[in-house]
Amino acid sequence: MKTFAGLRIHDIVENFSDTLIRIAIQQTKNMSEAEDIVQEVYMSLMKQRDFFDDEAHLKGWLIKVTYNKCKDYFKLSRVRKNIPITEEMTFMAKEEQSILPEIFELELEETTIVYLHYYEGYKIAEIANLLEMKVNTVSSKLRRLRMKLRFILEEGS
Fold first, then answer.
1. Low-confidence winner among 15-19, 20-24, 33-37, 88-92 (lowest mean pLDDT)
2. Domain RNA polymerase sigma-70 region, which positions (predicted)?
3. Mean pLDDT of the region 46-63
4. DSSP strands (E only) in 18-69
């Protein structure tokens, strides 16, 4: 059986699917499309040779491929299909569900930066590497996003 960073594909799906689905949902706002994208990510993984140094390297690769496949999704279909978030994201914690609508008011790239930093715990340099951006760009975007989210949340109170 094929392994990646010492993990079998079953273990990889078990460990990383929630993260990848969340990223894809943030981008597409459509559970069905998000699931298809994650399936494509796993198909891409199966075509790879095991070049991953460790589990963190594998996770970074999966996130990067998910993000890129989401960008491809928008290149192919210019129409966004919106599905009520609360019905589709029952696997998320209640506190996550309460702020998600505000996060979805951000631009696609912005939602990815916020998600990777606050939900996945990536540092700014790691996000810059994953999204192929400059560290200073990610840092300044994150600073502006904090202010923007604060404004959105205060406005809604």
1. 88-92
2. 13-75
3. 90
4. none
Q: Which domains does the chain have, with CATH numbers?
A: 1-92 (1.10.1740), 93-157 (1.10.10.10)
User: What token pair was written down for 118?
Assistant: 């606050």
What crossing angle do the helices spanning 55-76 and 31-47 adopt, rounded to 10°? 130
Q: What is the pLDDT of residue 15?
A: 95
Compute the C-alpha angle 27/109/73, nearest 5°: 40
Provide the CA 76 distance to its chain's centre, in angstroms: 19
DSSP H or E segment with residue 9: helix 9-28
Strand ranges (DSSP E) for the chain?
Answer: 3-4, 7-8
Residue count (the chain): 157
Q: What is d(CA 155, CA 103) in angstroms, rounded to the nearest whole number?
A: 14
